Amino acid sequence: MNVWENIGYRLLVGFCKVTGWLPRWWLYGVCVPVIYFFICKIGGYRRKVVRENLSNSFPRKTEAERLIIERKFYRHLSELFIDTITLCSLSEKQARRRFVVENLAEHECEVAGRSWICAMAHFGCWEYSSTYTLHTDHQVLGVYRPLRRRVMDRFYHYTRSRFGARPVPMNDIGREMLAAVRNDVPTALALIADQSPPWFSIRRWFDFLNQPTPFFMGIGKMALKLRLPVWFLHVSKVKPGCYTCRMIEIYNGIAPLTEEEITERYAAELERMIRQTPELWLWSHKRWKHKPPQTHE
Q1: Which of 145, 222, 210, 238 is nearest to 180 (CA)?
Q2: Contact 101, 135 (CB under 8 A)
Q3: Nearest residue to 194 (alpha-carbon basis) of 292, 267, 268
Q4: Which of 95, 141, 186, 202 could disulfide-link to 214, CB 3.0 to 4.6 Å?
Q5: Rounded Cα–Cα distance for residues 257 and 86 (Å)
Q6: Do 156 and 129 contact (CB within 8 A), yes or no?
C-alpha cells in the first residue's frame, strides 16, 4: 500500500472503532434507520436486482408479500453495516454474546482432532463467523477473494483476523488445507459457497429456489480429496447484532458420495434456511447472472 492508501486504511479503522464504542441503542436505534433511509428510500440500492431475485425465487407469493421481504432485507442490510463496523471494537466477551453456537459441545466432540469444512452462505452476519475461534481449539481458516481496493481488502483482513482466524486467498486454500492435514493440525475451514461461479467453470445446474442455479464445487471437491467432514452453518437472528447458529452435518468424510451430491446437500440446507427467514440472505447479489445453455443468450 502507498502512503495515501495507508492513511485511508488507518482513518477507516479509527472511524469504525470510535463508532463501535457508541451505545447499542444509538447504533441500532438511530444509525440503522438513517442508513436504511438512504440505501432503500433514497438510493434504492440494487432494487431491480433484489426484486427480480425475489420474484423468481418466490413466484407463489403475492407482490405485497415479496415487498415485505424486500423491506425487511434492506433493514437487515442496514444493520449489517453496523455489525461489520463493530467488529473493529468488539471485546471477546461481547463477541461471545453476538455469535452463539447452540450445539457447540456436541459439534466439538464430533470433530475433535479432525479437520473439517464449515459450509457457509451470505446469510445473517457472516463476518461474525470469524469469532468462532473463541469457541474452538481448531485453527480457523477463512477463504476470501482479495478485493481490488487495497484499503478495503486490508480492512476486512483486519476485522476477520482480530480473534485469531486466518484469512486465506481462495487460490491458496488447497495448499493450506493439504499442509494442515499432512501436519495433523486440526483445522476448521470456513467456506462461503453461495456465490455465482464464472461461466467457464459451471459443471452442473441445481434446482435452487425455483430456478436452475450453478454452485461452486469447491466444498465437495476438497471434502473428497482430503476426506473431510462438512458441516452446514444454519444461522438465526435473535435481535439486531446478535445471532445463534447450529452446525448441521451434510457429509461425514467417509461415505462414497460425489462432489455433486455434497453440493446438492449444501444447496438443500441453504434453501431451507432461506425459506425460514428470507430477509437474512443477500438478495442484492447477482446470483443468477448465468442461465442454462438452452436459455443462455
Answers
A1: 222
A2: yes
A3: 267
A4: 202
A5: 41
A6: no
Q: According to the model, what pLDDT value does residue 41 have?
A: 86
Q: CB–CB of 190/142 below 8 Å?
A: yes
Q: Where are the alpha helices (DSSP H) in the chain?
A: 3-20, 24-26, 32-36, 47-57, 63-86, 92-98, 104-110, 150-161, 173-182, 218-226, 259-276
Residue 43, by phi and psi: left (phi above 0), alpha (psi -120 to 50) or beta?
alpha
What share of the chain has pLDDT > 70, as a percent?
99
Rounded (10°) angle between helices 259-276 and 218-226? 130
Task: Check whether 119 has a pLDDT greater than 70.
Answer: yes
What's the chain's length in residues?
297
According to DSSP, residue 43 is labeled: S
DSSP-based helix, strand, coil % in the chain, nearest 5: 50, 20, 30
185 backbone φψ class: left, alpha, beta (φ>0; ψ -120 to 50)? beta
CA 192/CA 142 separation, integer angstroms: 9
Which residues is 205 bridged to in the sheet? 214
Q: Are 231 and 188 in contact (CB under 8 A)?
A: no
Angle between helices 47-57 and 63-86 (to 10 degrees): 120
Nearest to 237 by CA among 99, 113, 140: 99
pLDDT at residue 62 in the model: 95
Structure confidence by residue, pLDDT tens digits, 68-85: 999 999 999 999 999 999
